[in-house]
Every structure is written in C-alpha cells, then in structure tokens.
Design goal:
There is one protein chain. The chain has 2 domains: 4-76, Nucleic acid-binding proteins (OB fold (Dihydrolipoamide Acetyltransferase, E2P)); 114-362, Rossmann fold (3-Layer(aba) Sandwich), CATH 3.40.50. The N and C termini lie far apart (49 Å). It has helices spanning 38-41, 55-58, 114-118, 136-147, 169-176, 199-210, 236-246, 271-280, 294-310, 326-330, 347-362, and strands at 4-16, 19-26, 31-36, 49-53, 67-71, 91-93, 101-103, 127-130, 153-158, 182-185, 194-195, 214-219, 250-253, 257-258, 268-269, 285-290, 315-320, 337-338, 341-342. The model has no long low-confidence stretch (mean pLDDT 92). It is 29% helix and 24% strand. By secondary structure, the chain is α/β, with parallel strands linked by helices. The protein contains 11 helices and 19 strands.
Length: 364
C-alpha cells in the first residue's frame, strides 16, 4: 500500500535538471529528505505544504530511501504546470499509475525524427556496452575516454531501476561535463533528453539522431533482487545484448564483478552476469575480462572461462589491461559507488566496468 503523508518544506537542497532536493518536516515532527520532480508537480517553495510518498523511506531502502513529492495540495490551478494538452507527444510513461506522464517519443509520429526512424534497422556495427547496474556507467565512460578521447557516448536508461532520469545525479553530472552526449529513456523510464518506446528504437535514435559513436545500456539507479536465479531486474541485460546484435550492433557485455560483496553469489563475476549473458543473451557478444591481480584475478578469470564455455562459444573473451585505469577512475567527475561501496572498498567492480568501456572504444 502507498503511504502518503503531509509535511512542510523547511529548506531547499541541491538542484539538477528535472529534480530538486528538499528538507521536509512531517506532521509528526520527523525531518526527512525529499525529492520533487518539477515537471510532474511544480517546484515546491520553502514553507509550502507538500504531500509526499514515504513508502520506500519507511522500509529503510537504500537507493529509494527518500520521500517523494506527489503534490502541492495548497496550490491553485493557476500555480501548477501546464498540462499536456496542446503539447506534442502521446507516449505515456509510468502508465496507469497516479503519476503517469505524457512525453514526446523520438520515434513517434509527431517527432521530427519519425521519418528518419520509421524504417531504420541497422546500427552499422556500433559498439553497445550492456551493464547490469547503473553504478557501472561512470566507470564505463572513464574506460571509453581513456582509450579514445572525444568519443561521442549516449546512454540508454532502461526501466529496471528508477524511472525518472532526473533521479540520477550520475547522468546529470556526466551530461554537464560533456562526457555523455545524450540520455535516452525507454520503457516506463522517462525524463531523458530523448524518449523512446523500446531499447531497439533508442539504439537506432542514438546512432541516427544523436550521432553517437558508442552506446551504454543499463537500468536507472536502484536494482531489484530477490536472491533467486531469475528474480532480479538486471536479467534484461541479456535482452539488451539481443537487441544490439539484432540491429547489427557489436554487443559488449560488461561483467558485474566484486571482490568485497559478502554474498557468495556476487563474488568475482556476479550470478547476474552469468545468468543474463550466459542464459538470456542468445547472440554473439564480446566479454571484456579485466586483468586483475591476486586471488580476485584468478577467480574472475576462471569464472569468465566458465561463462564462455557455458555459451558454447557464442561469447568471446577479451582480456583487457586495467593497471593504468586507477588514476582516471579516481578522477571521475562522478563519485564512484556501487552497493554502498566506493573505489577503495571494491576496486574490481569499477575496473571491470572500465575494461568494458576501453574494449568498446577500441572497436571504433
């Protein structure tokens, strides 16, 4: 059940395109951090009453542990953002939820790019890096830039995690710094620079509309897992590999790796990667394997070999040098963090993602 509570805005925090952080005092006196998406609700002001969704906050979730502004109940119609009437676009995201929103899809009939995409069907060998976690994105970008400076990178955000692109500080910073040329949101995700219906149409738009040299596909912030073989949101990474190759792209499967995760199923190469790439992906793909030292290096190498063998040779292993990537990763404009761990806690995680970016860039 959705938990809605009233509160008063006591202060404004950091702002990024599409999102504003707030400090909200709830009716019971509790002070909480909240997030407002101005295009959905309007922009709250200090002292204003807000209606917030505290469902995830009260469960103590990590990525989703915020109060989310649902409405500004004291505002009149004149104070609220204009509705979609008269604006182009008929693609509805977060469909049939109380906060569904209407957007202009890059691939729909009212889009100026519709004619370009109507019969588009070929990525012409463009490298497509697929990753399980959103936290891999900045490290992949670092690897790309280290291998081939000036590469034009687009990001396709799927709907396995957060739906609003504005929730991601990573995307906001990478866009601001010019490290990402574009963010495209697909499925039920929304709020990217371009909206698309499917991963397929987003990949084609990345090449033909954005002019990207290389694309990264990963879910938004957050990751749903159940501790079962198939019950995790990253399983769709395998479907993204299928989409890339179906359209004539070069799929690069970024391994989810950890040397610090206490859960055995995620040590070395995570079972998420082994399932998504070994069982769900049905087409050829490159698997960049970072040249790590010590026990973690031996473990990852052995697991990568097993993954390639499991695929019957469909997956192709590529060993990638990573010993020079640490300074670049530490200098990333985005603070590297995955599952609550930073670079010093789990360097293998970020080195593996950077290796995928480096390998993809080497294909250009």
């Amino acid at each position: 059940m959705v938990r809605l509570r009233r509160g008063v805005v006591e202060g404004l925090g950091a702002a990024r395109p599409g999102a504003l952080e707030l400090r909200v005092r709830l009716a019971d006196g509790q002070l909480v951090q909240a997030l407002a998406y101005a295009e959905l609700t309007g922009e709250p002001r200090t002292g204003e009453t807000v209606l917030v969704n505290t469902t995830a906050l009260e469960r103590g979730l990590g990525t989703g542990g915020l109060a989310l502004v649902v409405a500004l109940p004291d505002r009149t119609d004149d104070d609220l953002p204009a509705g979609p009437s008269g604006r182009p676009g008929h693609v509805v995201k977060a469909r049939y939820t109380p906060l569904q929103t209407m957007v202009l899809g890059v691939d729909e009939q009212e889009s100026p790019h519709h004619a370009l995409l109507a019969e588009a069907d070929d990525l012409a060998g463009m490298p497509v890096v697929v990753a399980d976690l959103h936290s891999a994105l900045p490290a992949i970008v670092v690897g790309v830039e280290r291998e081939r400076p000036g590469t034009r990178v687009a990001y396709v955000m799927t709907d396995g995690g957060a739906l609003p692109a504005a929730f991601s500080t990573t995307v906001a910073v990478l866009r601001e710094r010019g490290a990402l040329a574009c963010c495209l949101t697909v499925g039920q995700a929304y709020g990217g620079d371009l909206e698309a219906v499917t991963v397929h149409s987003a990949l084609l738009a990345a090449r033909l509309v954005v002019g990207a040299d290389l694309v990264v596909v990963a879910q938004g912030p957050g990751n749903l897992g159940t501790g079962t073989r198939w019950g995790f949101s990253g399983v769709v990474a395998g479907e993204a590999v299928n989409a890339a190759v179906t359209l004539g792209g070069r799929a690069v499967a970024s391994l989810r790796v950890s040397q610090a995760d206490p859960r055995e199923r995620h040590r070395g190469v995570s079972h998420h990667s082994r399932t998504a790439y070994g069982r769900v992906a049905l087409v050829p793909a490159d698997v960049p394997v970072p040249r790590l030292t010590g026990q973690i290096g031996e473990l990852v190498s052995a697991q990568a070999d097993a993954l390639v063998e499991q695929s019957g040779g469909r997956l192709v292993r590529h060993d990638v040098k990573v010993d020079d990537l640490e300074p670049a990763l530490r200098a990333s404009p985005v603070t590297l963090r995955t599952m609550g761990r930073g670079y010093d806690d789990d360097p293998a995680s970020f080195l593996a993602a950077a290796a995928a970016g480096r390998h993809a860039a080497s294909l250009l």
